[in-house]
Design goal:
280 residues, alpha/beta, seven-stranded mixed beta sheet, 7 strands, 21% strand
Length: 280
């Protein structure tokens, strides 16, 4: 993610995500981890090598993909995985897990994905960003930095939300019932939800042989109210709530429940995502 002093939206700040670590971790473990598995299967899962593979995870959050990549490579020799995020809270969480489990050949470091100045050119074989790069203020910098640190022939793998991703669509549609001008999620969560634009930005950064896969998973709830366990302190949810007056906020939450019931008629909320892969 990105340097907090330059943000446009709450969800583009280190504090915004750090304050949400409880709900973020729940969301990652129970939902976005599925997309991380897809990304690994489409990339590392097709690599016939077992040794000397270096992996970078940009805007890694609490490290769902980072640790999946580590486990995939654990039996090989001289493999290395690095997770980076601009939130020290996220990185502290990861480092606690690394130390507690005495893991080797894996690191977690605080870095701005738009400026990976600590990393040397032509170092990594794979560079991932699963639902992280979409929030960058200057995505082109993020793409170019990932291109720079990859070896020739290295692979980039980006996860982005489609417009029909329920979790964010709910917030967008319900907020439109309260605001004369709905909040622009196209500037953050949905910023790479157009397949042609996603391909164009990868090509502009120098990537070739681009493949864009579509995958869908469900956020499964035990009851409708459980959705707020995932929304709690989420910076996107808070940005909406802070944009309406205090008297409307209970009604806003009630309308979220009603929207889920009438739109999906299910406790399983589907979310489409693109998994884009390119070669340096």
């Amino acid at each position: 993610m990105i340097a907090s002093e330059q943000y446009s939206y709450k969800e583009q700040t280190a504090n915004g995500w750090g304050d949400a670590i409880k709900s973020y971790t729940l969301f990652a473990q129970n939902f976005t981890s599925f997309y991380s598995t897809d990304a690994i299967d489409l990339t590392l899962g097709k690599d016939s090598r077992s040794s000397n593979i270096k992996v970078l995870d940009v805007a890694c959050g609490t490290g769902q993909l980072t640790f999946k990549a580590y486990n995939k490579l654990a039996k090989g020799q001289n493999n290395y995985v690095l997770g980076t995020d601009f939130s020290n809270v996220m990185i502290d969480f990861m480092n606690h897990a690394i130390q507690e489990n005495q893991l080797k050949n894996i690191d977690a470091k605080v870095m701005d994905g738009q400026n990976l100045k600590e990393l040397v050119d032509n170092t990594f074989d794979y560079a991932y960003s699963i639902f992280g790069l979409t929030f960058f203020i200057d995505r082109s910098k993020g793409f170019k930095e990932m291109h720079r640190v990859l070896n020739t022939g290295g692979k980039i793998c980006i996860g982005t939300w489609c417009h029909d991703a329920a979790y964010f669509k709910i917030l967008k549609e319900v907020s439109a019932q309260f605001l004369a001008e709905p909040l622009p999620f196209e500037g953050s969560a949905f910023s790479l939800s157009d397949k042609d634009q996603l391909q164009s930005e990868l090509e502009a950064a120098g990537f070739k042989d681009i493949e864009i896969h579509t995958t869908v998973h469900n956020l499964s709830l035990n009851n409708y109210e459980e959705v707020f366990d995932y929304f709690e302190n989420n910076p996107i949810y808070l940005r909406v709530k802070e944009s309406i007056n205090e008297a409307q906020r209970t009604d806003f939450d009630n309308r979220i429940i009603q929207y889920i019931k009438t739109t999906y008629n299910s406790l399983h909320l589907p979310a489409g995502a693109f998994i884009a892969i390119g070669t340096k």
